């Protein structure tokens, strides 16, 4: 499943396009929206984007400027520009940026559907090409140097990293991580209920990880206790993009972690689609002043991922900051085994939706709540319930709106906001499509 972001400073256009894509059975997309380039970039920092459909002329920051920023995070994202103007300078600049399509808004929805379909096809072709490249690289790959793996094992055992970097046993071995700068590790656990962690499988997962890891990260990798480990260090430019407030040097580490989750989502999807293997990931905290805790963080994350696998949960993404948060009710979990735990996860998803109808009930937000990969969550929910997650959300919004109209004197605009519609006209269109009459007619 690809993720489509629609950006336009006119809400009626943005909401209309979102609705049209969600109702078109030819597309299986996770559709997001933003009303400005600033909103769009905030989304890009949190999750992987595959296709961008954007107005080219917007206040404060144009679509062209948005693309310059967005491509830093997701260089494989396909770009489609919309405009109400046929102006040569915009066309020329768009072509220079290797944009997939430039469409006049007056041309209607069909050219936009066609452009997105073509973008999906290009993404499919690119994925196939990368798989072929991976296969060629694997044939030529030299076996992993044993000494590098040994040194990483000793770091994970908690030995002082600076002493290991000056140990003459490892003289001449490069190490791309500076212990005095912000760093983290990512651990990956293969779901061994379906696949054994063979050497070939591990090598393939490592290849996908390194291909998808942006160049803004330095990396050292190892296999430790049958678990895949990547020690990572973001560069100064990336850290600068997650600077918190005006104070120089203060980094929003939760922002870095959120970006990493978006990268891991892509890696999980590729492992599932290309290798037929499901991998769960755990993310450590910032190791800069905490190298002494690396063994403890590793043990904690590994225990959590193994517990979730034992309960039948696959393609999990969690981080050390979430360790203290119970996944559902811990007392209930003690009384449930795998079959009942699946029901518990569904109940948790539905409760989150019910509690957040006025807020963020996107696939990504729900997935973070239950520590699932967003694409896998969509499939998982349908497998467990027989219903699309979007259909369930829409049903709950409609149910809540009807309840407000019957039992309160709230204005329709306020009801729309309470059930998750930031546009009253969008709410009216949604309600009429579901009920065959407008909210005003229903209430009267």
Automatic annotation (TrEMBL):
The keyword Transcription applies. The modification 4-aspartylphosphate is found at residue 55. Gene3D superfamilies: 3.40.50.2300, Homeodomain-like. Residues 347-444 form the HTH araC/xylS-type domain. PROSITE patterns: HTH_ARAC_FAMILY_1 (PS00041), HTH_ARAC_FAMILY_2 (PS01124), RESPONSE_REGULATORY (PS50110). Residues 3-120 form the Response regulatory domain. Keywords: DNA-binding, Phosphoprotein, Transcription, Transcription regulation. Pfam families: HTH_18, Response_reg. SMART domains: HTH_ARAC (SM00342), REC (SM00448). InterPro entries: CheY-like_superfamily, Homeodomain-like_sf, HTH_AraC, HTH_AraC-typ_CS, Sig_transdc_resp-reg_receiver, Tscrpt_reg_AraC-type_HTH. This is Two-component system response regulator YesN.
């Amino acid at each position: 499943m690809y993720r489509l972001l629609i950006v336009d400073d006119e809400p009626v256009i943005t909401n209309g396009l979102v609705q049209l894509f969600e109702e078109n059975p030819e597309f299986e997309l996770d559709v997001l929206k933003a009303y400005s380039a600033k909103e769009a970039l905030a989304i890009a920092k949190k999750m992987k984007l595959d296709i961008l459909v954007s107005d080219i002329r917007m206040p404060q920051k144009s679509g062209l400027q948005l693309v310059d920023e967005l491509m830093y995070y997701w260089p494989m994202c396909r770009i489609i520009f919309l405009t109400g103007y046929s102006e040569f300078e915009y066309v020329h600049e768009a072509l220079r940026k290797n944009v997939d399509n430039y469409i006049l808004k007056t041309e209607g929805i069909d050219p936009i559907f066609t452009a997105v379909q073509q973008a999906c096809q290009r993404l499919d072709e690119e994925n196939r090409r990368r798989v072929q490249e991976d296969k060629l690289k694997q044939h030529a790959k030299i076996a992993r140097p044993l000494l590098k793996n040994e040194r990483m094992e000793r770091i994970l055992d908690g030995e002082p990293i600076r002493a290991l970097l000056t140990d003459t046993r490892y003289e001449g071995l490069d190490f791309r991580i500076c212990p005095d700068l912000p760093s983290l590790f990512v651990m990956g656990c293969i779901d061994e209920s379906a696949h054994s962690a063979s050497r070939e499988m591990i090598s393939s997962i490592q290849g996908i990880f390194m291909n998808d890891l942006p160049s803004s990260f330095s990396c050292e990798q190892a296999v430790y206790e049958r678990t895949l480990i990547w020690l990572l260090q973001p560069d100064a430019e990336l850290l600068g993009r997650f600077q918190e407030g005006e104070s120089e040097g203060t980094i929003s580490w939760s922002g870095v972690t959120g970006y990493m989750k978006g990268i891991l989502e892509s890696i999980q999807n590729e492992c599932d689609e290309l290798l037929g293997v499901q991998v769960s990931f755990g993310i450590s905290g910032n190791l800069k002043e905490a190298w002494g805790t690396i063994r403890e963080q590793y043990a904690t994350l590994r225990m959590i991922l193994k517990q979730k696998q034992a309960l039948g949960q696959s393609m999990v993404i969690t981080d050390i900051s979430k360790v203290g948060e119970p996944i559902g009710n811990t007392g209930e979990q003690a009384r449930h085994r795998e079959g009942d735990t699946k029901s518990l996860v569904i109940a948790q998803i539905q409760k989150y939706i019910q509690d957040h109808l006025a807020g963020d009930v996107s696939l990504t937000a729900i997935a973070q709540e239950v520590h699932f990969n967003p694409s896998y969550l969509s499939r998982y929910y349908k497998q467990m319930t027989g219903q699309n997650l979007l259909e369930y959300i829409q049903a709950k919004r409609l149910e809540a709106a009807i309840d407000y109209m019957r039992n309160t004197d709230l204005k329709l605009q306020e009801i729309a906001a309470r059930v998750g519609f930031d546009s009253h006209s969008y709410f009216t269109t949604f309600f009429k499509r579901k009920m065959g009459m407008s909210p005003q007619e229903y209430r009267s």
